[in-house]
Amino acid sequence: MSSTSQKHTNFVSEPMGDKAVTDLAGIGEVLGRRLDSKGFDKAYVVLGQFLVLKKNRELFIDWLKDVAGANSKQATDCYQCLHDWCEEFL
Amino acid sequence: MASKISDTELRHKLKELGEDVGPITDSTRYLWQKKLNNLLNDQKKNLRKRSISKSVNSKKLGGFSSDESELDSTANKTVRSGRKRVSTKNMSDNYVSNLKNSPKKLPLSLNKHMDENDFKIPGPVPLNSKKSLSRKKHLSRSCASDLTRHGLKNLNGSVGSDSVLDTSYDVDSSDSDVDFDRQKLTPNQSRQDSSLYATSFSSEVNKHTSMKKNISTKNGNYDLVSSEEVGLWKTVKHGIFVSFYRLYTRNGESCNILNSLDVYTLESTKASKPFLCRLRQATKKAFWQVAVIVLVIVLACGCMQYVKFSKRRRESEWKELISMIERIIEILKHQYEASQSDPSIKGYVAISHVRDMLIPLSERKSKENLWKRVVKFLEENESRVRVEDQHIAGEVFNVWRWIQISPPENSNKKDKVWQGQAFGNGDRSPNMLPFAPTPCLKIRNMFDPEVEYGDDWHVRIQDAILEKCESNSGIVHMYVDKSSKEGCVFLKCNTLQAAREAYSSLHGWWFDGKLVTVKYLRLERYHERFPASRYSTMPLKPSNNMRLSLSVPFQNSVLERT
């Protein structure tokens, strides 16, 4: 990745604590609402799914596309975000 | 299938496929299933690829495995179980389904069929291998044609699949490839004549290759080939051919029929356009596009020119009409005046005589329309011209008579004049200041902007003021406020004394029926409004020395008159 978004840097820079799901890179208002309606209201819930899928890129992206209707870019951003966060804090 | 297996099974299967399986929970289960399906599909594809490549290399079983992937699993099993000896019916069914699914597969399925019918012909036709070409070629060809015909008949539904063998050896004389059918022999016979067919076949193959090249060069691979090519094609036959071309009948309908009488055009299914061909096509396309654009532009230009031209023509016609009407009115006026001075001359002119006067004989025909329009226009829009019937030299004519309307008493042309003073000698008026506080004046009621006409009426107003103040040479700036309803004129003098004089010579005078009043304006206010006046020092002079506004002797006052 040549450059990361501001949102990405913000998220990766600190422990996620109680952050909302929309704080994840690639998750905007619409995707956030969809995820919320499926029970993924906090970023750490999405992290849980990410970890359950064993940080598998393909599966996680697939899952995000299915559950929130994300496009490839958004899903990849989100994956990258969680991945980097895990590298930093896990 | 995948949805029914349990978690452990799923895990097991994925592990078998070398996947690192995570926890399978409710939320992840379908993802893993999808993954499994994908993996299985990939595997299948790989298998198929491998089998196809195998079929090209090895001769016996290759054809089978490639076909298997196309067929249902049930049919698959049947074929496998009867590998050594499959019933003809079964095979023909396979063949028909193959033909329906993909005509390109034809050679493979043919080979399979031959295999099963103990024709002892191995594998697909290797075009480049000369070894043992002859026998195989002939047989494959004969079988191919038979099978094809049989398959087609099956497709048409006219012949049942039970009669495979009968139909396959039945020589149909209506077929165009009669020569081929005649040459067709039973497998036993073919051994004797194999060399003969080898040569003819290889020559056909050569023809095919050259023709393909030819077609590619001429039309590109996805273009239709014209019938002249088909003539050549007719000599090249069947089997191999179907895999390279899509066939079309004369009407442009697609057909699988190998009956060359019906085939009119060919379409190649493989792309290998030579560079020159591509270049030629691109140039052609570009040329057409440019041509269309140019055409559109030319059309647009033409339309615009036409619109312009017609507009110009209308304008010139209108001008001509107006000028003609003016000349007619002149003639009529002249006639009227002549009749006033000399009672023997009639005050009207016959319409046709006017026409003869105005339009020379040579143009009368071409200007007939114009003349009609002029007559109509005069009738409708000119109230001073009356149309009458009059006897002239014993003949009844439509005539025009000029009706002189006496001009209004105070004609507009009459110049505006200073008519006199309203209040007697202004200097002695008690309202008048004995000195001028500022050099600037505002003069009201000099004109009424709604009744003024012409482009230079403000010059006449200016002249009137300057003429009235002719003895005063101190007026350096004047502005006629043409838009003011009060008829305001602003005036600046170079000295207070000059302003005082101008004030007394203008205030309380009648000008053109209006009482002129004058006020002093503050100098700063004046400069604010007319910045240019700050630098004007030259005394103004009237535009002419005719003293038009003073030409009428002053009356004393309107009050005195009444």
What features would you describe in this structure?
Chain B: Residues 50-87, 115-145, 173-193 are annotated as: Disordered. Chain B: The chain crosses the membrane at residues 286-307. Chain B: This is Inner nuclear membrane protein Man1-like. Chain B: Its main location: nucleus. Chain B: It is found in: Nucleus inner membrane. The complex is a heterodimer of chains A (90) and B (562). Chain A has 90 residues and is mainly alpha-helical. Chain A has a single domain (6-89), classed as Orthogonal Bundle (DNA polymerase, domain 1). Chain A contains 5 helices and no strands. Chain A has helices spanning 6-12, 29-37, 43-52, 57-68, 72-89. The radius of gyration of chain A is 12 Å and the shape is globular. The relative contact order of chain A is 0.20. With 562 residues, chain B is of the alpha+beta class. Chain B has helices at 7-16, 29-57, 62-68, 73-81, 88-101, 106-116, 133-156, 164-169, 178-183, 187-219, 227-235, 238-242, 275-341, 351-358, 368-381, 457-468, 496-506, 523-529, 558-561; strands at 245-249, 254-255, 263-268, 348-350, 385-392, 395-402, 418-421, 440-444, 475-480, 489-493, 509-511, 514-521. In chain B, a hairpin with a 2-residue loop joins strand 5 (385-392) and strand 6 (395-402). At the A-B interface, helix 4 of A face helix 2 of B.
